[in-house]
Amino acid sequence: MKILIVDDSSTMRRIIINTLSRIGYTDVVEGENGKSGLEKLGQGGVEMIITDWNMPEMDGLEFVKTVRAQNAGIPILMVTTNAAKEDIVEALQAGVNNYVVKPFTPETLKEKIESLLG
Ligand SMILES: [Mg+2]
């Protein structure tokens, strides 16, 4: 299953990629903000998105809204430091399926991904 990881921090992308690999997901593509995330998504084959919120050029919220306008079904997990309840509600209203607050454990990421995949 190909997973798109969108985060402006290369360190955070590396952490997510390492965590995914530990739980069995090794097919990943990366974007450094919403704009490049949309480009990677447009290349096809992506079955799940893991995105940050705070990013330059196009943030995660705008990215999610743009993706949802054209794809209602793809699972989207947001991984962010924005932990306030109203932030979580806003992200869910934009179309995020689930939410992980940084820092996270591999177990948490695994649980969230598995719940997304049903
Ligand atoms: Mg960020």
Quick overview of this protein structure:
By secondary structure, the chain is of the alpha/beta class. It has helices at residues 10-22, 34-42, 60-70, 85-94, 106-117, and strands spanning 2-6, 28-31, 46-51, 76-80, 98-101.
> What is the CATH architecture descriptor?
3-Layer(aba) Sandwich
Helix content: 40-55%
- Summed over residues and divided by their number, the pLDDT gives a mean of 94
How many domains comprise the coordinates? 1
**Strand fraction band?**
15-25%
The largest sheet is: 5 strands, parallel
Q: Give start-end ranges of low-pLDDT stretches.
A: none
**Total E-strand runs:** 5
Radius of gyration: 13 Å
Distance between the termini: 14 Å
CATH class: Alpha Beta
Order of helices and strands: EHEHEHEHEH
Number of helices: 5
Oligomeric form of this entry? single chain
Q: Largest beta sheet: what is the strand line-up?
A: 2-1-3-4-5
Judged by helices, strands and strand pairing, the structural class is alpha/beta
> How is the CATH topology named?
Rossmann fold
Q: How would you sum up this structure, described in words?
A:
Helices cover 47% and strands 20% of the residues. The chain has 118 residues and is α/β, with parallel strands linked by helices. The protein has a single domain (2-113), classed as Rossmann fold (3-Layer(aba) Sandwich), CATH 3.40.50. The chain has a five-stranded parallel sheet, with helices on both faces. Helix 2 (34-42) runs parallel beside helix 3 (60-70). It is globular and about 30 Å long. It binds magnesium ion (MG). Magnesium ion (MG) is lined by residues 7-9, 52, 54-55.
